[in-house]
Inverse folding.
């Protein structure tokens, strides 16, 4: 059961990475306005924060599982 939850977390994390990559690509476009660039930057910061929180949760779960096996 923990493995299924872990795969769900991984999928979400990968989705975040894909969205962040897309934002970076869009920001690198020379035609983007400063305002749009700033909006995409803010969205990217939010995505990175959420992704980091998910990674932290997975790390804590793995640590707990490791302690249970000992």
């Amino acid at each position: 059961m923990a493995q299924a939850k872990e795969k769900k977390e991984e999928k979400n994390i990968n989705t975040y990475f894909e969205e962040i990559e897309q934002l970076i690509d869009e920001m690198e476009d020379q035609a983007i306005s400063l305002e749009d660039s700033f909006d995409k930057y803010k969205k990217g910061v939010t995505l990175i924060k959420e992704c980091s929180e998910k990674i932290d949760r997975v790390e804590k779960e793995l640590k707990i599982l490791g302690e249970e096996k000992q």
User: Anything to note?
Assistant: The radius of gyration is 16 Å.
